[in-house]
Design goal:
Order of helices and strands: HHHHHHHHHHEEEEEEEEEEEEEE
Number of domains: 2
CATH superfamily of the largest domain: monomeric porin ompg
Strand content: 35-45%
Strand order of the largest sheet: 1-2-3-4-5-6-7-8-9-10-11-12-13-14
CATH architecture of the largest domain: Beta Barrel
Helix content: 25-40%
CATH topology of the largest domain: Porin
Number of helices: 10
Structural class: alpha+beta
Mean pLDDT: 91
Shape: elongated
Largest sheet: 14 strands, antiparallel, barrel
């Protein structure tokens, strides 16, 4: 009996529903289609409503562009292209049309076609923030990093606070030049823990390859009035558009000033909505191994980058924790920023990592510092300072003051 009444209701009301939709205006059908797509994720119904709207207003460009987007989202690529090609024959010049059509080709790895569409769109809309940003993303995906950098600069000239543009600018900055040489100098002064100041100089060469960057670095240190050297090799192979690796290793014959061996691997992800994340390990070997596990999460917001990182060091008795929070404010490019940092514990990446041998990472450490980076053409300069309050013996604290200078030349 229930099935009978359901069938009767369907026979009565379904024709009425269709009749009601036939009496709706194109604008009303368009709004219902948008509701079906965005609120219900019902693309099939939305496509049907959009097609009805176009029957009433076949030259309504916004509805046609929306239909093309619907086909794109529903993975009906041929139908989407047919809609956009039809608009091209009508010589449509709407910004949203170029954005939708170029996005279709970008998402389907047709980078050359996407750039062709975007260039035409920018000829009509040279101040379009959305078109410039999409062009930067397409060029980046096509490994045209220098051209992508030009497009991202155009985007930021229109809106310096564009979150996605600032995020992409940082990634592009690492890839625009095939080579880079850097030199850094770090000075450390202790008020109690050690009698002698520390001096550390690092010289590195970075080469950008088709699969990612490779960095070779040599370090010289004068600690405890003794000299020592270390050699490091790091690589950042790209696995996909979203994922890349950090792989690093180092060796030194001057144990105590540096660990004898250092290794590390991390998986990094460029996530949606300008988030990024990392998870991995670091291993240091002095007279025995120290294993540290790391995780971090970062977020770009307008001109800012926020990052929180932790290092966790387990042993037989307890687990030691290190936390560092960083905020960067980008001024005019990815190489121009002011940074502020605050945290606890010792990081294996710090020049103080030889202190980990004596298990001082199990004692309390507070640190706070700032950094300023600026660029002049292909030259980048950095100045940083850091203050540490270190419990180097149980219930005994000392202060450390660091100053770091850096210079990088790209070519």
């Amino acid at each position: 009996m229930k099935i009978y009444f359901r069938s009767l209701a369907l026979l009565v009301f379904f024709p009425l529903q269709i009749f009601g939709q036939q009496n709706l205006s194109a604008e009303e059908l368009f709004q219902k289609a948008r509701t079906a797509a965005f609120e219900n994720k019902d693309y099939t119904t939305s496509i049907a409503l959009t097609q009805q709207a176009l029957e009433k207003s076949p030259n309504y460009t916004d509805i046609s562009v929306f239909l093309g987007r619907l086909y794109t989202w529903n993975k009906d690529i041929d139908s989407a292209r047919a809609v956009f090609e039809g608009l091209a024959k009508r010589d449509v010049q709407d910004e949203d049309y170029f954005l939708a059509y170029a996005s279709l080709e970008y998402w389907n790895d047709q980078y050359a076609k996407s750039i062709e569409i975007l260039n035409k769109g920018l000829s009509y809309h040279p101040q379009s923030e959305a078109l410039w940003l999409l062009k930067a993303k397409v060029l980046y995906a096509d490994n045209q990093f220098e051209e992508s950098e030009k497009a991202i600069k155009a985007t930021l000239a229109i809106n310096p606070k564009n979150t996605e543009a600032n995020s992409l600018a940082v990634k592009i900055n690492e890839l625009t030049s095939k080579n880079a040489v850097s030199i850094t100098y770090n000075y450390s002064h202790f008020d109690k823990q050690f009698d002698d100041d520390w001096h550390i100089v690092g010289v590195s060469y970075k080469r950008v390859t088709p699969i990612g960057s490779v960095i070779l670095r040599g370090n010289y240190a004068n600690k405890f009035a003794q000299n020592g050297t270390q050699i490091e090799l790091e690589a950042y192979p790209r696995l996909s558009k979203m994922f890349y690796l950090y792989v690093g290793g180092a060796y030194s014959g001057d144990v105590g000033l540096f660990p004898k061996y250092r290794t590390g691997i991390s998986l990094n992800a460029n996530l949606p909505h300008s988030f990024e994340a990392e998870i991995g390990y670091r291993q240091l070997y002095f007279s025995s191994n120290i294993w540290m596990y790391t995780a971090s999460v970062g977020k770009y917001y307008k001109n800012f980058w926020f990052n929180l990182r932790t290092y966790i060091t387990p042993d037989n008795k307890n687990i030691s924790h290190s936390y560092t929070g960083t905020i960067r404010y980008y001024t005019k490019s990815a190489q121009d920023y002011i940074a502020f940092q605050i945290g606890t514990g010792i990081s294996p990446e710090e020049n103080r990592n030889n202190l980990l041998e004596n298990e001082t990472y199990k004692l309390k450490t507070f640190k706070i510092g700032a950094e300023y980076n600026f660029s002049v053409k292909k030259n980048a300069f950095s100045l940083g300072t850091m203050y540490y309050n270190q419990e180097y013996l149980p219930n005994t604290k000392g202060n450390q003051f660091d100053v770091t200078l850096g210079y990088t030349r790209k070519f």
